[in-house]
User: What shape does this take?
Amino acid sequence: MTEQAFIDEVLPHQDKIYRLARNYLSDADSQDVVQETMVRLWQKRHELPGYRSIQALAIVIARNMCLDKVKAKSYQNSSLNNIAEPATMHTPASALETKDEAALAHSLISRLPEQQRIIVHLRDVEGLEYEEIAAVVKMNVNTIRVNLSRARKTLREAIIKQHNYAYNGS
Assistant: This one.
């Protein structure tokens, strides 16, 4: 793979790798993971054309590095403190409500079992296809569909429960 092909085919995946890493690590550590992933991919650049999905390979490398860092540091996931502001804010009240909903969603997702949390992130946040997710998590497509369905059902029930509590508690 030439330098230009690497730039065209590999570098566009940096944002996805960063978002994945942010689920596990701080901003600085996430940037380190992205950089190290790119270095490893560059070192394998001659083997990359043989892979069916460079994106899946990049995500697997990044995920493994994140898990290694988490294990090494007994790292605490602090992603709830860094929720991004929505792009369109109409009123302060709607902005606060949107931020609260995002915080609730992040909180509920972080409580899911690791496998379901990763599948939800890859499918609903990153928009990967089932086959690409299967390559990342080393599961078959039907198992991914079942885990995703269970995760979404758990999230839906928790959100409904939270809204009913908030409605009845006010």
About this structure: The chain has a mean pLDDT of 81. The CA atoms of residues 89 and 96 lie 9 Å apart.
